[in-house]
Amino acid sequence: MTLTSTERPPTNAVARLTGQFFRSRETGILAALVIVIAVTTIVNPTFLFSSDGFRDLLLTPSILILIAVGQAMVIITRSVDLSVGSVVGLTAYLAGRLFIDVPGIPIIAVFLIAVAGGALLGLVNGLLVAYGKVPALVITLGTLYAYRGINVLWTGSNRINSSDMPKAFLGLGTQTLLFIPSLTIIALVVVLAAGWYLRNKRGGRELYAIGSDPDAAELYGLRVPRRIVTAFVLSGALAGLAGILFAARYGTTNSQTGTGLELQAVGAAVIGGVAIFGGSGTVYGAAIGAVLLLTINRALPILGIQDFWQQAVVGALIIGAIVLDRLLALRLSRKLTSERQVSHD
Amino acid sequence: MTMSPNSPAPAALELRGVAKSFGAVVALASADLRLEMNSIHALVGENGAGKSTLVKIVAGLYQRDAGDFLLRGESVDFTSTAQAKAAGIAVIYQEPTLFPDLSVTENIFMGRQPTDRYGRIDRRAMKAEASQIFERLAVHMDLDRPAEGLSIADQQLIEIAKAISLDARVLIMDEPTAALSGVEVDRLFAVARSLRDEGRGIVFISHRFDEVFALSDTITVMRDGRYISTDAITDVTEDEIVRRMVGRDITELFPKEEAVIGDVLLQVDDISSTGVFSNVSFSVRSGEIVALAGLVGAGRSEIARAVFGVDGYDSGTVTLGGRRVPRHNPAAAMTLGLALVPEDRRKQGLILESSVARNATLSIRTKLSRFGFITSRAENAAARIWATRLQVKSSALDTLAGTLSGGNQQKVVLGKWLATEPTVLIIDEPTRGIDVGTKAEVHRLLSDLAGRGLGILMISSELPEVLGMADRVLVVREGRITAEIARADATAESVMFAATHAEEPVR
Fold first, then answer.
1. Interior CA angle at A332 toward A331 and A337, to 5°?
2. How far apart are CA B241 and CA A302, in angstroms?
3. Is A209 in contact with B99 (Cβ distance < 8 A)?
4. Residue range(s) defining the domain that contains residue A110
5. Do the beta carbons of residue A198 and residue A207 sit within 8 Å?
6. Alpha-carbon dihedral B97, B98, B100, B103, rounded to 10 degrees
7. Hey, are the CB atoms on B111 and A201 less than 8 Å from each other?
8. Which of A202, A333, A343 faces B148 most closely, judged by CB atoms?
9. pLDDT tens for the 345 residues of chain A, in order
10. Is B170 left (phi over 0), alpha (psi -120 to 50) or beta?
11. Which H, E and C letters describe B435-454, residue by residue?
12. How far is residue B380's CA from residue A87's CA, in Å, rounded to a whole number?
């Protein structure tokens, strides 16, 4: 897992980059992840050293990574998207329905429709937040229930089972390529693409600017509403992608699919160092946060920790991450201020 | 001016008869300004003379109601800040707005970063241009550090760098030096001069005359939203400018009646708050109205808030009637007999969605309640006493406070505080936003209260009010009391001079 170092090719300033690597927020999360994996593996070597163990390690968090990346982009603009769990549910069911209702439909077409459907649901969120000027927390809490309601209305007590979906499609959910699950490869590609966009495109940088100071963004003449809509559309599209992959991976979907994923996604982003008030953080961090969150969930039973405590540990992790961020921010701001005083004396 | 007189080149920026009103309030009646290229043009005037409104019109934030607005000889109408920016106008505000999380370089180029042919941001080119600009400004700046934690002076330099990278021909600096130290001011001035010599026009707004005279080529005076005069800086003296700024008849609109001045009620001893105000001492006696005069931002409201306990302070003591007022504890100050009527009554003084009666009795709710409950009868009875005494023009006590006029709102706030039976009343801008007729009423009320033995500390930016009402004027300048002027000696000129003029070299 060297997500952060694949970000840019090594240059002659290797020393500077390694320095940056050790200081960056993502490194800490990565270290925590490595420790969790190492300790659990010592207790039970099959956690990592078995073909299933290694595969599960990568496969389990893949779907959450996709949502966490979308969530990170939205949070960076100082919003939040609580509807993603419901979007996953809707698009997963949509995918299943398409296979049943349109026999012989190409798998790629179902993918495109699911992603577009997710993007459309995200567009609704984005338009309401950006032009309705209502806080995202309220809007997406509303659409969380509204989208779930549509799902329940449409699905009823139906359940789509693996027998309803083509084998090739279900294979996508579990097959591997060079020992790496294809789901993980998709997630990795998304993470790298989103990371590249946020770092290298004007649109990406403007998401940070908007989250850092919305008023300044207006004064700079940035197209604030448009960028916010973009972030929500991307979040919705990624939730759509997660939805169809959910159907492929678990081979079943009903009206409750994806419930609770939104909070896991917010948790993953926050643990990964995305500031909840926007303006800083990376999708790499959010992705590692997602892996850490789900890996801990799997590790705790192996370490003999009771069910009851597992939730508490996740909660402690999120609060710990926020406290750590706050402390780091305070330290940085004190350091920056004192540097300034030194340079002016 | 460096331009040859026989080629009447168009001015960089020209305003003629520009007017702007907000509802019934006239912010600008008729403003003129002619800014030449290659020149630094000072714009001076009292608080409320209309300078800020003028800047906002030029910046595209407001649209004028009437008059001409020409840029390099061509008429323009801006409907957004982006248009003004595109036309080459940059405004540097007293407190810049930057993105704290982003680097200095990104702050300069946000929204228009140089990109390569794949639309990818060319960080190297961006950084090279940024360092080139700072080199030209002869300023050292760490380009990769985030803007968070930068001093205001450095933030302004980033704004200037932004203006240069936009190739702005007109720069407007709205009180840029207010938060700067001496060295920083010198550096800013060096930058401003070099920008002028590159052929740009700069409008410099400041209250510090030493700086205005040191930096500017031309000076325009505004008063009450009108253009008064424009001169070459060498043709005028400070005294003349001050006279033009305040030069209006002080009508006897605000007479304070004679009251028996009694014992010291409020005694403030040497209070300081780092970076806000320092070594402030004064006293307020029974029956006396003491005015805190000075420019907006001089620290008057901050002093009042600290005395009352809304904000803390670092050292010094406040006593009321011989008893120590604890630091940072408004509830205790109220119990001891202090009352503070804040400046922004809509935000800090009233609950707009509640009735007049509820607002007027807000400060005595525990006194009115029996076993924790308040009957509307008790509430109305208490409110009626004050409503009648203050002549609040509201048909019913259940009218919502938000629907009242400014003057009546102010009376309700006053009633609320007077209900606590204070011995000293601190009142911040008692007549801001109140029409002339009601103003006189508020003044009569204050005078009446002083007559009953209350001590009043009044903060006011309106010179006529200060001169008419105050028994003593304390002038605050940059967080210090720089002058104490008795009623007999207080004139518009003497107060204005103390408020703008540094007796000692700046820091």
1. 100
2. 82
3. yes
4. 57-325
5. yes
6. -170
7. no
8. A333
9. 334 333 444 445 565 556 565 567 788 788 888 888 998 888 888 888 887 888 888 888 999 999 999 999 999 999 999 999 999 999 999 999 998 888 888 889 999 999 999 999 999 999 999 998 888 999 999 999 999 999 889 988 888 888 888 888 888 888 888 888 889 999 999 999 999 999 999 999 999 999 999 888 888 888 889 999 999 999 999 999 999 999 998 888 888 888 889 999 999 999 888 988 888 899 999 999 999 988 988 888 888 888 778 788 878 878 887 787 778 777 777 777 666 555 444
10. beta
11. CHHHHHHHHHHHHHHHHCCC
12. 54
User: Domain for residue A109, yes or no?
Assistant: yes
Q: Enter the pTM of the model.
A: 0.73
The Cα A103–Cα A164 span in angstroms is 10
Per-residue pLDDT tens digits for A82-128: 999 999 999 999 999 998 888 888 889 999 999 999 999 999 999 99
CATH, residue A289 = 1.10.3470
> Does any CB of chain A come closer than 8 Å to the CB of residue B99?
yes
Q: How many contacts (CB atoms, under 8 Å) link A and B?
A: 80
Tokens of B31: 């403003």
Does residue A19 belong to any structural domain of this protein? no
- Is residue A210 assigned to a domain? yes
Q: What is the DSSP string of A203-268?
A: HHHHHHHHHH-HHHHHHTT--HHHHHHHHHHHHHHHHHHHHHHHHHHHS-B-TTTTTTHHHHHHHH
Q: What is the pLDDT of residue A18?
A: 61
> What residues contact A214, with CB distance under 8 A and at least 6 apart?
A78, A224
Q: What domain count does chain A have?
A: 1
B338, B320 contact by CB (below 8 A): yes
| Residue B426 dihedral angles phi and psi, to the nearest 5° | -105, 125
Quick check: B501 and B483 in contact, CB under 8 A?
no
Residues in chain B closer than 8 A to A198 (CB atoms): none
Any domain includes A198: yes
Of A200, A202, A335, the CB nearest to B111: A202
Dist CA B229 CA B245 (whole Å): 10
List % helix, strand, coil for chain A (3-state, nearest 5). Answer: 75, 0, 20
Q: For residue B303, what is the DSSP state?
A: H
